Amino acid sequence: YPTWKRTLTRRAREAQMKRFCKAQAIQRRLEEIEVTFRELEQQGIKLEKLLRDEEGSPADQKTQWMNQLLYLVQKKNSLMSEESDLMIAVQELKLEEQQWQLDQKLRSYMNKEESLKTPEDRVAEQEILVQLLEVVNKHNVLIHIQEEKRLSEL
Questions:
Q1: pLDDT for 107-141, tens place per residue?
Q2: Separation CA 56–CA 67 (nearest Å)
Q3: How many Cα atoms are found within 13 Å in the side-chain-facing hemisphere of 14?
Q4: Lower Cβ count inside 10 Å, N or C end of the chain?
Q5: CB distance 111 to 85 below 8 Å
Q6: Which of 23, 25, 41 is nearest to 80 (CA)?
Q7: Tens of pLDDT, residues 101-116
Q8: What sequence ranges are listed for the domain BMERB (predicted)?
């Protein structure tokens, strides 16, 4: 094994571990968001009941409850936006992993001597290139979605 091959292998493993750790962090955050959604929903239900049931309450109390309810809605919208960003990040990680796998396959074909390649090898190499192009296009679509989202939030 030449040094450069070991270096490439090590870097590939490091990148794969990085993607794995990032995926775990995203999963944890998505679970936290889900719990927070449930909590916000419970608080919202309580506030709605208070607003409906307390007809004789002072106006300031109703205003305070209404403001709390609006705050909960705003917080929920913020969490939904974050959840959307995380789902896009998950898709990006999947595409990165898919691209890495296709790169590995492509390298194996490209490292083969041209004179030793069978017609099937050449066809497989072309198919991998097409798949790689599809992955890159999907990644571009995700970037475009993120950019549109960012611009709409501004």
A1: 888 888 888 999 999 999 999 999 999 999 999 99
A2: 18
A3: 6
A4: C
A5: no
A6: 41
A7: 999 899 888 888 888 9
A8: 13-154
In order of 110, 117, 129, 131, 135, the CA distances from 124 in angstroms are: 11, 11, 9, 10, 16
What is the dihedral sign for C-alpha 55, 59, 61, 66?
A: positive
Cα-based distances in Å from 77 to 27, 84, 99, 112, 128:
19, 11, 33, 53, 41
CA 25 to CA 58: how far, in whole Å? 46
Tokens linked to 6: 């070991």
Q: How far apart are CA 1 and CA 19, in angstroms?
A: 26
